[in-house]
Batch of 4 targets.
Target 1
Amino acid sequence: MEILGHYHYWVFAVLLMIGFYALVAKQNLFKKMLGLSILQSAVFLLYITMAEREGGTAPIIQPGVADQLYSNPLPQVLILTAIVVGISTMALGLAIVVRIREEYGTIEDDEIRRMDRRP
Amino acid sequence: MTLASQLPALQVVVPLLTAPIAAAMRPRDLAWLVTCAASLTAFAIAVALTAGALQGPADTSLRYDMGGWPAPFGIALVIDSLSALVLLVITGSSTLALLAGRRAMALDIEPHRQPLFYAAWLTALAGLCGITITGDAFNIFVFMEISSLATYVIIAAGPERRALTSVFKYLITGTVGATFYLIGVGLIYMMTGTLNLEDMELRIAEAPSRGPVLAAAGFITVGLALKAAVFPLHVWLPNAYAYAPHTVTAFIAACSTKVALYVLLRFDFMVLQANLPEHAAQFAGYLLPLALAGILFGSSVALFETHLKRLLGYSSIAQIGYIVLGAAMLDRAGLTAATLHMFNHALAKGTLFLAVIALGLRLGQANLNLSNLWGVGRAMPWTMGAFTVAAASLVGIPGTAGFISKWYLVSAALQQGPWAVVLVGVILISSLLAVAYLWRVLEPAFFADSPATLSEPIAHQSWAPLVILWLAAAANVYFGLAPQLPVELASRAAAILTAGHGAAELLP
């Protein structure tokens, strides 16, 4: 059960690899950006799941309830920042893809490379 | 609460808050002026902080608690000799590039976009300063992304369309690097429950298991090596340098890879190495061969490159190899050489790219193939004169800054027992290759007949780029003859880096 008990790490690793595969193997620049987004989502998941504790609740102190188990709020706050960073990266990346489409007329990496090689 | 005590925060806040002001400035010359003023202020702050870090014993560090929150809970800013040296490099190169590049940027970038361009420049500057000054692992990530995103924007402002494709490649690689770093920080946080670098160092020793920390060390090292363009993770660098506006290249080439290397040194030596006995051997075992391969690869490719800026870019890959080589020796002498070379290489490469700004004004932005440079030495003797001085510094001719760090690197290599011959051999071969590839630029520039393109300058020559260029070239000579300041900073930095783990381990 050790392996299944860590299932969220497996989800993290699989998502990371899917994102990485798209980055490396896809020629379409838009699909590369999608891969990047999946890669980053995998890391968001890593942070969010690490904060969770079995039987833990939201970290709000209630009067009259002692010894309550809380989830750690800090990783979620951190990852909120990272999500914002991820969105900015996505926006900038897509803006560059749009500009590439305007200049080259295509967003296929191999075609762009062929056009660049021709003087 | 005096102004002096707030300087660490102001180092980041001044460029960050000036960025929106620059974006709102019309006419555009005013935007340039505001940007220069902010960059100069940042440089002055860096000088003041350096003076503070140099007072007292070697491990002096100034601390600043952001918002008054004490250290492991709030974000602490830490200025020691290592970060002071990197801050000097960042703010200095930004200021010189801005002052020299006014005309070039006015020609390169559409007028209505210029204020926004300057805003992005200042954001990049603030981000780089932030990475250097902060003592918090997650804060480093945030500043890394701030500086990277802004850097992508100013590189994409390049006049050729290939700027876009090269910046896209840089964006993908840079984001993967930052994401790897984030994974590493997450794993360490899982084990230690802290993000403050110094607190981390203490708590890793008590971590319930070593596995995740070792994995984190791998993720962090690879992620930062991607950002720092350590061979073989360098593919984004030559094109990003080549197609950026020349002024941006002068700024980026001098400092952005150095900042990633700085974080790499700080994390690997100050946080991880003291607590992971396996880590030192692995760090050296992987990075030393890569450094040697990178040195030889970068120099050899530069030998056959036909575009001036790409040639200098490949030379940067070799020079990054020197810095990593020094770090991979793991001892004090090696780390002194590595940090010293960060400073001196920034000086030499920055000066070379400042000369490229002047060349671009005369020859046109896109005409920087080596064949365009024939006879340019006689047409522009001052520019190419400074280029020659900086080239001598890059090679390591005695009397220039480059010689000092090569000297330290070779003396550190000589202490490496049986490996010394190989290390010194690689350094010497690479220096000879550097002579060869720079000669390929200089020989036709001074001794060949000039082509027709030279007869009609694209833009009216102004004195500002030349004055700045010669100021930078003079700095190369000055720090070659009187190297006390960088040497003092570097040896103190090495002392801080090695403080955690007693005797230095030998190579595997």
Target 2
Amino acid sequence: MSRRRKVSTKNEEKMLVELKKELGPQLIEGYVQRPRRIHIKVNPGAHRKAIEFMRDKWDVWHVSTITGIDLGEKIEVIFHMWKFKEPQTAILVRTEVPKSEPKLETVTDIVPASNFYEREVHDLLGVVFEGHPNLERIVLPDDWPEGVYPLRKDWQPPE
Amino acid sequence: MSLVRIPVGPQHPALHEPENFTIEVEGETVVDVKVRIGYVHRGIEKGLESRTYVQGIFLSGRICGICSNCHTTTYAMTVEEAGGIEVPEKANYIRTIISELERIHSHLLWLGSAGLEIGFETMFMYVWRDREVVMDLLEAISGNRVNYAINIVGGVRRDITPELAKEIRKGLDYLEERTNYYKKLCFEETTIRKRTEGVGVLDTVTARKLGAVGPTARGSNVKFDVRKDDPHLKYDEAEFELITWDTCDTFARIVVRILEVLESIKIVRWCLDHMPKKGDIRPQKIIRRVPEGEAYGRFECQRGELVYFVKSDGSDKPYRVKVRTPTMANILSVPELLKGGYIADVPIALASIDPCFACEDRITFVDVEKERKWTWTKEQLRKYAMEFNRREGRW
Amino acid sequence: MLDKVVKWSRVKSPWVLHMNTGGCNGCDIEILAVLMPRFDVERFGIILTGSPRHADVLLCTGAVTKQMKKRLIRIYEQMPEPKFVMAIGNCACTGGVFKGCYGVEGGIDTTIPVDIYVPGCPPKPEAIIDGVAKLLAKLQES
């Protein structure tokens, strides 16, 4: 491993403290995985507050992608944000929604780049992003049946 | 020399299936663009969940044939981080060398195709002939011209011997000389400048807002390069510049890519100078099971930021793999790029974000004023563009 | 007599249409490399065309995705007889590495009949030229 590579996580710890102060009890869990990787888990709905805070306070305007993971009873949605201003770091904002009612508020008004990523999570996992300007089909073929979400664990491709 | 045409797609005007791009025009000017992607959606993320980590490398490398190495490297790096697997030092050097050689191959491929879009077919032929030097080097190192599969979880599969290193240096000297020639060509040749300056403008603020990545963003003066922001492999030690250009148009993107080829040559030379002569390149045993964990990997692919998110559960297959390719990030910027420009500028402006071939074979135009609708293949659009530019004196 | 002339011109100068039905572009760049001065398949008289109505040969790459299936069938139907199909690459032959993925039907022969299979991932330019030579031989016989 190189000597010049950053190994201290002081800056990331400071940022995590600021996030905890801003979100209070809405922040369920937060940890620094390694330099340039902060993970926070928030209540659904609080993700907007977290992303807005990061945009206004730290000039975080880039969302790299949005991941959806089927955890069985719940679907986890992770917003992968990237902070450009020094110290540069990735902040993963995670939240969980019940599979029986997978609804989450959109963040396209805060970070417009999330447009396509929300549509993709909707297509493949069925999460409805309330307030999205055009939540249409994006990656699946046009004749794909409605209500069938291929990335859910209970769906397998036909043999 | 006979004309080379790259034919893609049928030209029947009565076809009513969904198009990749629907461009609304008023006369000659583009007013809006609607994009439909998904023609190449194969279901790879689900496929990766049912393949072992060893098999997954081969699948992820075929998400895109031109950036194949970026995908396998990022997949391997992310799985290694999720499982806490150490990679030998020499393997990191080899990974960096192959990644930069792939960047050179891809940028030269793009430069040739861009030349074709402008109508500069001679440049297309010359650049692709020079690109064969890189293809031969990659074949000598990895055994294949495309889809090298040099990575495995924990290291690389093939070593670079001192003889091979000598061959690489010879190849780099030739490529540097040729790239400097293309750089001079771009700055001095009026055809190229007339066809690309002021075309496909994406200002800095919009580029940031819409999440543009790679040379598309750097050509709009956004200092975004994962090799500098989030160092991995040997990028924090190798000496190279972050290239940006401030004219925010297609010309800027051409310049950024040419200058990046020169920087890549520098990085490969640095790696060859500093790579340990002896050392392990792969783990002692093939790593089948990866301990439980999660990791978020970022990599600077030729087209921009490539991200992988891997969640492992202790078995020999990943629980979830999420891939976001850079073209998906750049497609959101395409409407802004094309709006306000001429129909004739569409081929080169669209090509300047370096999208995958399969994404843009047919384009539908809708004239909102005259309520007319027509579909052109890429070939027809290119022909129209050349005639238009000839008429307007941009030739 | 006219038959012989038509056959001679078809063998001497087959018109080829290239179509990517959902591949990774690896095979496509090797096809383009085959047109370049180093390999130069044009000396065989191959001419690329943009329209299926003028094509003798359909060059397909990539596994057929569900979204592209209808388009592939339509293009095949638009080509005049006699027509030949060349499947280039492992994915075009059998579905390759994507077999089993939900977005993919399989190889080209799940949708249209194939005459020549050129395996490889991607096949080297020399292999593609070999496939072309075998195709010309087949055209001669027909």
Target 3
Amino acid sequence: MSEQVVLSPKDFKSDQEVRWCAGCGDHAVLSAVHRSMAELGLDKEKYVVISGIGCSSRFPYYMNTFAMHSIHGRAAPISSGVKLANPELNVWMITGDGDSMAIGGNHFIHLVRRNIDINLILLNNQIYGLTKGQYSPTSLEGQITKTSPYGSIETPFHPGALVVGAQGTFFARSIDNNLKLSTRIFTEAAQFKGTSVVEVLQNCVIYNDKAHGYLTDKEHKEDRQLILEHGKSMIYGKDRDKGIVLDGLSLKVVKIGEDGISEKDILVHDAHTKNPLMHLLIANMLNPEFPVALGVIRAVPTETYEDKFYKQMEVVKEKSPIKSMQDLLHSGNVWTV
Amino acid sequence: MYLCCHKNMSKKMTDNIEKIKELEEVVIRFSGDSGDGMQLTGSLFSDTSALLGNDLATFPDYPAEIRAPQGTVGGVSGFQVHFGQSEVNTPGDYADVLVAMNPAALKANLKLIKRGGTIIIDIDSFTEKNFEKAGCVSDPLKQLGYRDYNIIKAPISTLTRESLKGLNLDTKSILRSKNMFALGMVYWLFHRPLEFTQKFLENKFKKIPIVIEANKIVLKAGYYYAETIEALHPSYRVAPARIEKGTYRNINGNIATAWGLIAAAEKADLKLFLGSYPITPASEILQELSKRKDLGVKTFQAEDEIAGICTAIGASFAGQLAVTSTSGPGLSLKTEAIGLAIIMELPLVIVNVQRGGPSTGLPTKTEQSDLMQALFGRHGESPLVVLAASSPSNCFKYAFEAARIALEHMTPVILLTDGFLANGSEPWKIPDMKSLPKITPPIVKEDTEDYQPYRRLNDEMVRGWAVAGTKGLEHRLGGLEKMAVTGTVSYVPENHQVMTYEREKKIEKVVSKVPDIKVLGEQEGELLLIGWGGTYGHLYTAYRELKKEGFKLGFAHFNYIKPLPANTYNTFKKYKNLLVCELNLGQFANYLRLNFQDLEFMQYNKIQGLPFTVSEIKEKILTVLQEETK
């Protein structure tokens, strides 16, 4: 086979000028994907990047890999078709909160349910950017947008909750301005066998600026973010003095050293447990009551769809007397005149 | 291979020899409640007849409801088979023999029985209660002029029960086998052996021997009953057809379509991928291909119609023969994705098994409903190739052809079949795989220097297929307008016009693969009968019969819709009258008008969810010819 070529992030950049707005969170996500692909060390032709429609879905044009900018909401089935056709390909799906939570919502849950090995990067800016500022399924209740001039009255989707509800095997969350974290998560997602959903909280500088501003505020971000690692306690805060404990069937923020709470009382993150309840609670933690959880929330290795698909095919091939079209044509009731 | 019970009866048969009538062709219609097993009964009779060498055509006609209320006209399921010793191209207009398992079945089919025909009814089911269920004021038998028909009132239910007395079976199972009694009677009437059906039962119920035994007993009971009662004499013989030598099998349109696709994949040396969603009457294609994992066929039952076609587009990007199958409503849902495949110029076959529309329309009934949608049903200038199969068995040929054109011309192709072709079956001379042409898609080799996604490779303007995963060919495709040659995104106004022309021209150039239209009969003159797709059998039979009767006309039937055969216009110009017959309001006629604006087209249209009858076509043609002589 070909000798191992070491690729750098810039090998994954296409020659096309990137046309996102200055200050858009997508730029950083693109860089993280370039870095992660270089880190993964696969041959360039093994990567396929598929997107739907939306600002984030322009992504494929900026990738120097096989890529397709498809139609609104349909990146999930197109990615599925690519992966089933050739399981050796490393398939990335780039989508947004409109593309995957609204028009492509149905495809999203079915992809997750089937557990096809696809890395799904969902850029969530809680707004429709490409169509210039209408509310999305993840927009907050009360959010003022062009189509909700008096405030949105809809209940937003939480992508993590949908993944858990659809019996997903992998869910992680990152934020656009943390390039290091995004790169690490993307690489872990790509190495995970199964549908890996990574929600990237992303800023739309034009139509929903500072959507995640509270979370990213330089002064307070350590107190508002909880960066998870499997096997480590859920401790956070500027002074590493806050933690998460279970209180009945809910989570609670506690202060270490107060009310007799010590480090050992704090929950230890187990991303690998099959039971999705804790993952659901963690994924649903919202500011300001809780820190927002970043990192890999759930990663439960489960046999992939394509593994089962090809395994079954081999079994049938071995058992069947029909080995060619000619055999099939002459099978069953035939007669000669 | 003649079976035992024939031998046992050989003496009796010789006694009756003078009572056997030779017939050229016969139409039998089996009808009953949708739970009565009429589809199976009809299929078994057809298979037996085919094995004996008859030519035949079948037409299953069933309700959309799985179990409509018992005994109602809405719940009647019918299976018509037309078999003969000469060429048979339609399931027949009217039945020589009608089997009616209940009053509703008789009521539903009163208009479909030939004068003088034989009607076999289960007299046990002709009760006041069942008349009421069927919505009859009184016995529907009374509506028939007794003298015009040979009515056999057989106590089918009673005799079925009687013959199974010794077996330990519940009433439900007993009554379920009464269709075998009717089948046994019909077998005797037409001198068919029971062997094939017996073998079928042995296979089908391998695990429940008592059911095999019961069905066999009832089958024979029906056979003997028919022999015993005088009313059925004479019996009939339909000699084997004088058909081309070869190995044959029965095949319906859906199976033929599925197999044509597998054959194409084999000839292209590609894997076949079907992304689909179940829909009547196309589901059988997905079902059949799902069975064919043994041949490496990949099927994906998607979450909806859109996902069906989108998985296929993904598979096409990754280098497989990609197909999606559907029917009208599904085609509507797929239109946006078809547009994507058009702009990306990826090979894709879309099989549309047409049914009555609009909306949910008539899911189980046939109609040439979607020609306009196939041709024009997308936003933007979005040309593609449209083909139509014209008999159950040639669905194989046109599925193969659709795949060949898609792969060699890098384009989506819509193959139109319909409910009539999909469910109808006929004997088919099995092709030799070696006789099928090799398919050579323009796959780009790895590390090809200066690869450009939208460079046209040949006179046909085909672009190269750079399969995802091939070294050195990384490129981007998408729904945004492409720059000519490089394929990068382009908003340049002039480029959009260039690319729009290129896409249109590329489809026009598929004409190099389209054979000239051949006219049967008169090569010029008063009248050209024109059809397309699934109506071939009926139109051809009407043409053949009129020709035999001394009328002069030509007949042209189209399988290639876009592009049309190159000689179409010159062919049409040779006739004074052009009569387009189709099962819609004139979609093909309008398409022809669009293409040939100086020609006038007459129309004959039927929109009843049913195929044409030969007699109505003949009548229409005669009206036109008589107008001419006036």
Target 4
Amino acid sequence: MTSDLQSFLFGRLTWADFVHDPVMAASGGIMVVGLLGIIIGLTYFKKWKWLWKNWLTALDPKKIGIMYLIVSGIMLLRGFMDAVMVRFQQATNDSLGVLSSDHFQQIFSAHGSIMIFFVAMGVIAGLFNLIVPQQIGSRDVAFPFLNSVSFWLFVAGMIIINAPLVVGEFSNAGWLAYPPLSGLEYNPGTGVDYWIWSLQVAGIGSLLTGINFFVTILTMRAPGMNMMKMPIFVWSVLGSTALIMVVFPILTATLAMLSLDRLIDTNFFTTGGGGNPMLYINLIWAWGHPEVYILVLPAFGVFSEVVATFSKKRLFGYASMVWALMAITVLSFTVWLHHFFTMGAGADVNTFFGIMTMIIAIPTGVKVFNWIFTMYKGRVTFATPMLWFMGFVVTFTIGGLTGVMMSVPAADFQFHNSLFLVAHFHNMIIGGVLFGVFSAFSYWFPKFTGFRLNERLGRYAFWCWLIGFIVAFVPLYILGFMGAVRRLDHYDPSMGWQGLFIVAGIGVMLIGVGVVFQIVQVIVSIKQRHQNRVGNDPWDGRTLEWLTASPPAEYNFATIPTVSTRDAFWEMKKTHTLPKDTDVEAIWLPKNSANGVVIGIASLAFGLGVVWHIWWVVVISLIIAIIAIIVKLTDDHPDRQLSAKTVARMAHEYTLKENHG
Amino acid sequence: MRKDKKRPLGRGTQVVISSVIGVAIVGALAAVSYGRDIPVLNPHGTIADQQYLLIVITVALGFFVVIPVFILLFVIAWKYRAGNTKAKYEPELEGNRKLEALWWGIPCLIILILAGITYISTHALDPYKPIESDVTPVRVQVVSLEWKWLFIYPDYNVATLNFMNIPKETPINLTLTSDAPMNSFWVPALAGQVYTMTGMRTQLHIMANTVGVFHGSSANISGEGFADMTFTVHAMDETDFVQWARTAVHSPAMLTSESYAELAKPSKNVPDTTYMLMTPTLFDDIMMKYMAPSSPSSSDADTKKTDTMEHMHMDGMN
């Protein structure tokens, strides 16, 4: 009877699930101590109310964007620590016996899942929030509350994926958890469930973000800004969000089927019961390949803005760039099978997907040439954002070459699942996405803080990252040629691989130094903020975000600008037609809402409830989430008004500050 | 406007530092790779030879884009640096139709060539396509287990564990399946990979050019013992192979359905073993385990489910 009650109350959770091996316990401990520190700090400085009112319940996309960046930044550190452990294990070839095979497999599974879902997706969502409304001359996004829900679902997913450090275990089935390994038969524990529900919750958040920004771009552009006058970053977000809307439902459905296989013995992906794991592999990549472009398109957008600004010149071949972006968006749906040429699909099918993959290289190549020629007849300054651009072109071109090498199916048979592949996609994700985000961070940082980042520390960070990246990943290409496959926790010493693994480990340490420089850079810059104050246009920018104050008022634009050309702000400066905030009107802005937080907490409880089979928690949290949605949707007064007088006063203050700054 | 700060280092120092770093990286990589076996680039099999050639051709074609990109990137960035006020400055330059046509056109052309190569090579090197040769092929059936590789020689009534003996210059027709999580069979010196999956029959054809011992591995994560799930391929002279097969068929270890069931249970680092094959249909039996819902399976949950299903069949028949 008591055991019945216990399993009703706690599902399959027992005290034993809190016991971990020393390495994992230490990581979990650090996390718990960190959280406690934050909680104590907030309480001591009496900041809870401030945090709640100004941040957690905020619907202002700028604040949500900053929160995305903070969470993703912390997750970058977590994912990076996982990478360090992977490199350490392989460089020492398990000679110290620190990590068991199972733990090692959990670490690389967590590394991949966290880096994609909670770093890359988080930072691009952050960029969408911060930049898109500014660039299209809008005061807000189309659905401000939905935006808050997206963010809190992202946070809930993030907590679920980190929970195994404290209780239970994580998936050991790799970042895409192919069945049957991820099925009940081979993985009956909580690991795969943690993976599924973390991604499920965060994935729904991403889908909502996609819808939100797609609609925002289509409907909320400043008057006069037709599609072909949009900044190229906005185009890239349009492509990215279109992809999100089409492919994230596939992820949701696939994860739901895998979860049903595990929960109620359906047989979608089990060979024995008439299902088929190949179906899963197709579905997960039908989401997974476009996902790569969801991440990299915004990075392309960032570089397009950066290279034009720092060359003080128009972007070369704007129309070409738009067509290339759209071509990549469409083509990215037609290549998923190249992730498993080795499945035995037959020569005709492999040929088709191989050729489609190569075709993507064409618009991508065009973009590279257009970026380079944006510098042509320009005046190029090599500030940090531009350094990241230069690094990006070099690493991304190498990554493109290795990508084309793998797009030839018969050659891919020799690269598949080897460290060559691992090196290739890190080339794209680090050299493409991450460098893009770092460039964006140093480029737009002054816009949202009012002061510039320390340039020298930024340079140091860049060089450490670039050199570290080369030292860390070139050995992996060579190891791939030597026949080393990915995900090995140890290998036969007679293979002669250890030297290269050690070099790769040194590379990761260099990247680590780069990360330290970045952290120091932010701290130093905040400390020296008074010396580094800038006005609204520190880089002599081209697009509308540089028209708003730094940091922007919560309404962004007191007067919505009218756009007549591309690079609207550059044109306004040139023709001295900057809008004057003399005749402002009242502005309606959304009120703060706690419902997003409530829905996030309910989703967190829901996810953890399913993982541990605690069904009463699942039911109650679902009811709470539904109530929170209904309450919000039936609110007749979701907005508050800033009167014309207030806006005029605020705009005046900003002008004063601008003139003094 | 931002003032250009004085560079912290002189140009000469920068060149020296970057050269030192470059030399150090290249030197370190050369030192740790020198003399190592690089099977993908130094293959010993007919298929891997052709795959190597294909890789070289692809890289060469890729260089037609990569090299201009690198040259243009650095030349243009250098020439139009803000400090060089002698260079032309045309802030309103929007593009150039001819140039853009050039870099839409040239990549299109390269990809067109590569597409042709892809069509031909994908069909020529289709893993399912038998290798043309006058020599009669040897059939080997491969099963990936938790965490072992089983090789069945149906024509010789022999089976081996974690190693495969093959005659050189003879086509080997591999038929592969899995009785464990999906895996990938890879002997880089001989040929590229193919997946092994439960209830699925994949094929691969290989041929070793020389006598030698080649490293084979699992390329797909398959659980805890995955890292140890390696095997070796011994390519030998025809006569040696026949001699070996004749001896092997009298091995004391016997592979029956029962001993297979024992072998299929998860285990790591199992030593190389040679078996006398007692159940010639073993490979098909393994495939059939996954073909029908009413088949026996290893997990308890499945067994229970199977029982009820069998009852249902019987009820239906009654």
